[in-house]
């Protein structure tokens, strides 16, 4: 019974229920706690027709009520119940949010009875109560809390539970130091321990027919009073004897005579009591079977934990041994390579030192000759000078020729001509994985890319491949890999059995390398040829087959064939442009370097729409997925079908419908944002909420990854920048709204005139 304890505690005070009452939403609350969380509302917010009785509550229309949450305005709009004003919430001891009254009650009226009366003080007029569990709100009528029925069944269960937890009962027949009682005789009304039961209450003769029960059950049966007859909450002198099937509540004859339930189907209270008990018993039997299966499953899981621990230790030891062997082999190869580097180092030093020695000797000789010639020039004997001048001139020219071309050039470069090619090894290490070998290892062949079906559209890429025609090896699936569009490492983007895949959310104006490999039970096969795919720069959807063909030629065609390949591709491009009337900017995609944009050049733009695949099921899209609304009173999130991770982007949304002061939110979000709460309530999105917008208003969103700014505009008025320090990853345009709002998206817009991006930002794609 310990697992049942949480069911017996009040969601407000966290203690066991005391005088529990049943709210129309079927939740329970202590009578005193209900009074503590009452909120008094103005007279204007209290319709005369509002009722607090559970019999007036339409259980079939629960989903039509506005639920209280942090994302809506806090006002209900259905039936006779009016929501309480928004109040700060607190946490009750059991973790449920509790909404206290906006005006504190006087100290003597909060937790105490009226003096000399023994009853609770009267409920203030126009009081409102919010359920602490589902947060539905309703206004009380003149009867106040008496309009709610008391949950006598829950009160009895709480009483029995508390009694079962009380101190152990003692035997009533022990003479000295009574022992703990083990049974109770219902006929004798005596508690026995085992020795006294065998001595004073043997199971034979007339005593054999007595019923022995556990002490706790016996105490409950001893204290249980005769069942009270329930009275009607509206007619206190009438007993509840009938059951209204439509209202799902017990009623009295006076309720039938008043006409309130005259047209409803009613049945005898006892018959419905037995019927519902039977239904509950059947449901419990099914649930009991599920609980038994769950227990068996838990035993299985606990056994798996032990097996996993044992197998994990063994497997880790094997893995460590294999990796240590690889590290040892790498260390041996490292020693060999270091030996080669040492030899190269010593060779370079030897050559340079020999050149230093030779150059030093020559420089000494040259310096000596220069000093001798200077001394000769100082002599004043013309005949003696002319005798040796021709020889000195020849020696000077010969020495000068010795310092000629190449003599002052180092014979050895200081750079090492050894380049370690570690790329293949690093790639192999990255591909190192676990493969379960079954029988003979037969790896699948490398797939063949079908160039005629590969294309790009805006920032999406579609790739298609097939198996070699003569391959008979079974294939379980394929792995598609793309780099980051900037020459980085490859990463897996698709794993499955399909042979065509579309990758969305790529960068604009980027060249992505792609490759495919197949796998089966034996392992992973070789990669296909690498294909380079260029994403678009502008809003037009370009056919990219020529650039794919060019990339393929560049990768796998010898140099002496490139000139003819370029010529054929040029003629093909001209004919394709003439037949399809493509934009000339398409053919700039095959240039070696993309054109540069100036700071005043208008950047290319791209279209996008709302994405029905990732939207919440309550979202309603129309107008080619450009107009969005919702069929729920709660906030629901829808995102765009294009993601951004760099550059400058701008889009606008017009408010087509704006009723009952809703609270829409506009901004950006990650792909894993929560779809059933207001945008910005978690750490996956940033947004601006209702900031004075109305029907016909225009909300603009400007996202600048370079500066880390998310800027909002309402009717062309800037709402202030929000700076980010670590805005990384892929973000999508997003909006959250309910059924009171309808919004139309406008994309493909240039950035506003007041915003001037830098030179590096001007070339970025804008949406």
UniProtKB/TrEMBL annotation:
Domain B30.2/SPRY: 588-767
UniProt xrefs under InterPro entries: B30.2/SPRY, B30.2/SPRY_sf, Bbox_C, ConA-like_dom_sf, COS_domain, E3_ligase_FN3/SPRY, FN3_dom, FN3_sf
MF annotations from Gene Ontology: zinc ion binding
Keywords: Coiled coil, Cytoplasm, Cytoskeleton, Metal-binding, Repeat, Zinc, Zinc-finger
Domain Fibronectin type-III: residue ranges: 447-538
Pfam families reported for this sequence: ANCHR-like_BBOX (PF22586), fn3 (PF00041), SPRY (PF00622), zf-B_box (PF00643)
Annotated SMART domains: BBC (SM00502), BBOX (SM00336), FN3 (SM00060), RING (SM00184)
Domain B box-type: 166-215, 227-269
Domain of life: Eukaryota
Principal location: cytoplasm
Places the protein is found: Cytoplasm, Cytoskeleton
Start and end residues of each COS domain: 377-435
Protein's recorded name: Tripartite motif containing 9
Organism: Cyprinus carpio (Common carp)
High-level lineage: Eukaryota, Metazoa, Chordata, Craniata, Vertebrata
